[in-house]
Amino acid sequence: MQLKSRILPLAAVVAAAVAAGPVLAGDWDGGQVDVPPPEAVQTVYLEAEDLLPALESYQAPGVRQPGVAIASRQNVGGTFSGNAGVLLANGDDGTRMTLRFTVPASGAYNVIARMGVGPDHGIVQPSLDGRPLGGPFDGYAPAAGRSEERVMGRVELAAGDHTITFTVVGKNETATGRNARVDYFELDP
Hints:
By secondary structure, this protein is mainly beta. The chain has one helix spanning 2-20; strands at 24-26, 32-34, 44-47, 56-58, 71-75, 84-88, 96-103, 107-117, 123-128, 131-132, 137-138, 145-146, 150-157, 160-170, 180-188. Strands 3, 5, 6, 8, 12, 13 and 15 form a 7-stranded antiparallel beta sheet that branches. Strands 4, 7, 9, 10, 11 and 14 form a 6-stranded antiparallel beta sheet that branches.
């Protein structure tokens, strides 16, 4: 009975220590050293042009000419952050580009984007890791510029590499084309 009464309190202490997580660890000399806290989830800001070349840039329905990038950096002066963005030039629905980015810490994030707008812009559907992200974005506007920031959705992301894809799915009846421009997107915890 005495052994059992001593083991139960010890088990409770061990369980509490495991639940609290390590704060100190022993070094080789028998002393203690601080263990750094896990990396905190922070806002991740991604300029689209910094993610080029695209993993995929596909023009539908025709065949892309070798060496011709459908997704390309476009310098736009002070209109876009960083004075540049990515232009997805295309001729039909189904044209898409996929950009790779890295998430430093696992967590839940709001995916926020700022897109280009203009008279020759189409409607694009964003997707994250192959899954649709929010609804389509209509990029038509009478004059070229950029959209307000738009929350595309909230997602759980593991630390590591991910992809975001923008696919042209149509155009506003007033639009003269189906182009798309991406200024930046961010992951906000």
